[in-house]
């Protein structure tokens, strides 16, 4: 139930912000907006100036007299603003045989059309910057002040490519690194390099580690090595009626030991549990200030039904920011996330990364929304900011149905100084809509099988 509530809340916020951008820009340009909807499909209820608050569909012959019907619709998977005189995902072409009216989208100059179509993306971008700025100003930012590699297990990816426990990372592709964020950012934000060259100090000697980029693309989906420091995994979720719930395990428990083995990271937990299906395992947990001892029996497929996140207790410092520097750092954070997102998109199109690994659908969003909310308001706001930015980036891609696809069509019409025939626009929209539906179905399928 938590997943559903947080999914609706998260999507509702992001859709409202995005569509409000389109709505506001249309109003500024004196374009009529017939509908402002959160959700798709059947109208549940709404309000307009003509007949006030009503439940269910509006009468088919209603004349809104230029006003907007603000509504909540049945499927909470998005939303839309129905802009008069525009061919969009509503596929309404009732105006095609009429002369453009002054209040219609199609009668406006190119620069106003482009402003309206990009306003949703801009609002999502502003929301992301505002959240990051607020977090930086009111809370500051924890910086992991080390480049020392923590526990590296034999036969792990990190071990196989050459890392050893206690390595101090000096530089990545000749770029010096000073903290753990810069280590991971420089590893992930790679474009043209076929090999990552990492200089480390080991036992007083400088050692070069070379990682093929293709291998790194796959490994970077997880934290394949961790900074030095006590890294104890915290339980973020306990599935109902699971072995973990039966054993009395609770959210926010820290896992200290399993089967008398000390636990340093989430991978330790996964390795021990997955290799002991249907065998009782002792567990030592830290719950607040109390130590809890229990026993859990993994299912036949080696799972106990918990979500995990690592906690860091090594050397760190908290940076505080003034309001101007908070804004500057917020913009810098956004730039880093934009670069990272486009790197992942580029890898998908290059065939170096599977679509299911790079993108998550409604199920994944619901899961991450609930998990981040469980970790507190700041964690949820960070998740909301990153998701808002992802929505902006994906929407601006030049693909039919998306804002970026509309942008390209408007730009072409502006250069040609005439409208593309509506039949062609409709064909483009239909093809794009079908491809998008198939892609979403594939992503949702991946979400479900990876639960």
List the helices and strands and how they pair.
Elements: H1 2-28, E1 33-48, E2 52-55, E3 69-83, H2 110-138, E4 141-144, H3 157-161, E5 168-172, E6 175-176, H4 180-188, E7 195-202, E8 205-212, H5 213-219, E9 231-238, H6 243-246, E10 254-258, E11 261-262, H7 266-274, E12 281-287, E13 290-296, E14 306-312, E15 316-319, H8 323-349, H9 355-358, H10 362-374, H11 377-395, H12 403-416, H13 422-449
Antiparallel strand pairs: 1-2, 1-3, 4-15, 5-6, 5-7, 7-8, 9-14, 10-11, 10-12, 12-13
Helix pairs in contact: 1-2, 1-10, 2-8, 2-11, 2-12, 8-11, 10-11
Shape: globular
Distance between the termini: 16 Å
Q: Summarize model confidence as the mean pLDDT.
A: 85
Largest beta-sheet characterization: 4 strands, antiparallel
Could you describe the 3D structure shown?
It contains 13 helices and 15 strands. By secondary structure, the protein is α+β, with helices and mostly antiparallel strands. The protein has three domains: 1-32 and 84-138 and 323-451, no CATH class; 157-228, Pdz3 Domain; 231-313, Pdz3 Domain (Roll), CATH 2.30.42.10. The two termini are 16 Å apart.
């Amino acid at each position: 139930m938590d997943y559903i509530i947080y999914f609706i809340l998260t999507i509702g916020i992001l859709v409202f912000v995005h569509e409000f951008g389109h709505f506001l820009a249309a109003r500024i340009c004196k374009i009529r907006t017939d509908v402002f909807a959160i959700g798709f499909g059947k109208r549940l209820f709404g309000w307009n100036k003509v007949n006030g608050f009503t439940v269910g569909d509006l009468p088919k012959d209603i004349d809104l007299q230029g006003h907007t019907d603000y509504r909540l619709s049945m499927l909470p998977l998005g939303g839309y603003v129905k802009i008069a005189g525009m061919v969009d995902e509503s596929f309404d072409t009732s105006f095609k045989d009429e002369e453009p009216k002054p209040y219609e989208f199609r009668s406006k100059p190119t620069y106003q059309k482009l402003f309206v179509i990009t306003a949703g993306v801009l609002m999502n971008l502003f929301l992301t910057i505002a959240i990051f700025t607020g977090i930086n100003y009111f809370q500051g930012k924890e910086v992991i002040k080390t480049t020392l590699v923590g526990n590296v297990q034999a036969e792990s990816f990190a071990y196989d490519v050459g890392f050893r426990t206690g390595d101090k990372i000096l530089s990545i592709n000749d770029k010096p690194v000073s903290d753990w964020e810069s280590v991971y950012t420089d590893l992930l934000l790679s474009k043209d390099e076929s090999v990552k060259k990492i200089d480390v100090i080991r036992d007083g000697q400088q050692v070069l580690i070379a990682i093929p980029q293709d291998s790194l693309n796959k490994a970077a989906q997880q934290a394949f090595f961790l900074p030095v420091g006590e890294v104890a995994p915290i339980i973020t979720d306990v599935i109902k009626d699971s072995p973990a719930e039966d054993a009395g395990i609770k959210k926010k428990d820290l896992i200290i030991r399993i089967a008398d083995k000390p636990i340093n990271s989430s991978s330790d937990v996964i390795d021990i549990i997955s290799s002991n299906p249907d065998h009782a395992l002792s567990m030592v947990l830290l719950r607040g200030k109390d130590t809890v001892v229990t026993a859990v029996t993994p299912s036949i497929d080696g799972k106990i039904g918990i979500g995990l996140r690592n906690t860091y207790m090594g050397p760190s410092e908290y940076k505080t920011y003034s309001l101007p520097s908070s804004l500057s750092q917020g913009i810098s954070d956004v730039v880093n996330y934009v670069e990272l997102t486009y790197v992942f998109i580029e890898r998908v199109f290059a065939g170096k990364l599977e679509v299911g690994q790079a993108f998550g659908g409604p199920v994944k969003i619901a899961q991450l929304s609930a998990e981040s909310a469980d970790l507190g308001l700041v964690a949820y706001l960070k998740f909301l900011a990153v998701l808002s930015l992802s929505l902006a980036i994906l929407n601006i891609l030049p693909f039919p149905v998306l804002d970026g696809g509309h942008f390209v069509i408007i730009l072409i019409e502006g250069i040609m100084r005439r409208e593309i025939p509506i039949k062609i626009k409709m064909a483009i929209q239909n093809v794009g809509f079908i491809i998008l539906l198939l892609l979403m179905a594939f992503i949702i399928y991946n979400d479900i099988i990876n639960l």
